[in-house]
Write a structure and sequence with these properties.
Number of strands: 8
Structural class: alpha+beta
Strand content: 25-35%
Order of helices and strands: HEEEEEEEE
Length: 159
């Protein structure tokens, strides 16, 4: 009787290991890319939500009852912390900076708040509710990655 005791050769073992490593490398590359895409999408969604909150605050102050003007105030307490007050509501963030460009619809005034600027420590704008206000550009900029931003524009008016 002849017994077959060949087993696995060294070449077969090396081919199997190299194919396994190649497949695992491809799978891990796809997995890492999907995690990065998820992180970018998550940041974009958070910026969109924050921008919507800011626009809602401006819109709420502009469309509130009465004809008394309201103010948008920006104050910097130190190099990192800032507070913006829109009407009765305040907001601040240590994760992002805001650049808010407002214009009156009649073109008589414009106003820019840039929380990344360390030269301006305080600004106040009084807004007449009777005149539509153009949010020319509201930009939210990630403090950790300045290339990661979100921009929105709109017009707010009372009918």
């Amino acid at each position: 009787m002849i017994k077959n005791n060949q087993g696995i050769t060294l070449i077969e073992l090396l081919v199997t290991i190299s194919l396994s490593l190649t497949i695992m490398g491809l799978i891990s590359g796809v997995l890492m890319q999907s995690f990065r895409s998820m992180e970018i999408s998550d940041t974009h969604i958070k910026f969109r939500q924050e921008a919507n909150i800011i626009i809602s605050m401006i819109s709420g102050a502009h469309l509130s009852a009465g004809s008394d003007p309201y103010t948008i105030t920006y104050q910097r307490s130190n190099s990192e912390d800032w507070v913006m007050t829109i009407g009765e509501n305040s907001l601040s963030s240590q994760n992002y900076d805001i650049r808010l460009e407002l214009k009156s619809s009649n073109g008589t005034s414009s106003f820019v708040i840039d929380t990344s600027s360390t030269t301006v420590n305080s600004q106040t704008l009084t807004i007449n509710k009777k005149i539509p206000i153009i949010v020319h550009k509201l930009t939210l900029i990630n403090k950790k990655d300045r290339t990661n931003k979100f921009e929105i524009s709109t017009i707010i008016s009372r009918l």
